[in-house]
UniProtKB/TrEMBL annotation:
GO terms for MF: metal ion binding
Entry coiled-coil feature ranges: none
Upper classification of the organism: Bacteria, Pseudomonadati, Pseudomonadota, Alphaproteobacteria, Rhodobacterales
Name recorded for this polypeptide: Uncharacterized protein SCO1/SenC/PrrC
Presence of the UniProt keyword Ion transport in the record: no
Gene3D superfamilies: Glutaredoxin (3.40.30.10)
Pfam family, one: SCO1-SenC
């Protein structure tokens, strides 16, 4: 991929993230108030996000969101052929999870592909192993991936300039999700691993 092409892709992704920050203003509403308010990264309001999904794990098994989110989890939508944004985000997430491992707090990092045509379970297994031994890669049919992305309001579209080495524009947030609770907060790309680890620890302790 040429340098100009990389700059163009980066510009598109920055625009997507910027737009996402405008419409992705969400607050978890619970009876009696928000029990996780002290953990949130910023002021958010209105709307809802997250929901059930069925995908295929990197081991080839069909799994539901209930099976995947069996502990505090950090979800990210990306693709393994992503040249720069996805590996940076996946590494940041893995670093935050590693920091929590040292504190005895287990958080599951999850990588959901928006490129199911190329991201087979085998490809995902090799990819996630580069970041954390507990990172779970998920793929599926076009319909399964679309439904999961829609649940989290993830926008994505493949460029058709190259049938083999095409890129995919996508929303680049991470999502903190808790079992029996669901989505609780969104993580922006510029959040440092240390700050993310602190926030994940707060949510995990508040959910106990």
């Amino acid at each position: 991929m040429g340098l100009d092409r990389r700059f163009a892709l980066a510009a598109v992704l920055v625009a997507v993230v910027g737009l996402g920050g405008t419409w992705l203003a969400i607050r978890l509403t619970q009876p009696g108030g928000d029990g996780f308010a002290q953990c949130r990264g910023g002021a958010v309001a209105g709307g809802s996000l997250g929901g059930p999904f069925t995908l295929v794990s990197e081991t080839g098994e069909t799994v539901t969101s209930e099976e995947v989110i069996d502990r505090p989890s950090l979800l990210y939508f990306g693709y393994t052929y992503c040249p720069d944004v996805c590996p940076i985000d996946a590494m940041r997430n893995a670093q935050a999870v590693e920091m929590l491992d040292a504190e005895g707090i287990e958080v599951k990092p999850v990588f959901i592909s928006v490129d199911p045509a190329r991201d087979t379970p085998e490809v995902l297994a090799q990819y996630t192993a580069n970041f954390h031994d507990r990172m779970l890669g998920l793929t599926g049919s076009e319909e399964q991936v679309r439904e999961a992305a829609q649940a989290y309001r993830v926008l994505y579209s493949a460029n058709d300039d190259d049938p083999e080495f095409y890129t995919v524009n996508h929303t680049a947030f991470s999502y903190i999700v808790l079992p029996e609770v669901g989505f609780v907060d969104v993580v922006r790309r510029d959040e440092a691993p240390e700050a993310l680890a602190d926030r994940l620890a707060c949510f995990a302790r508040a959910a106990e």
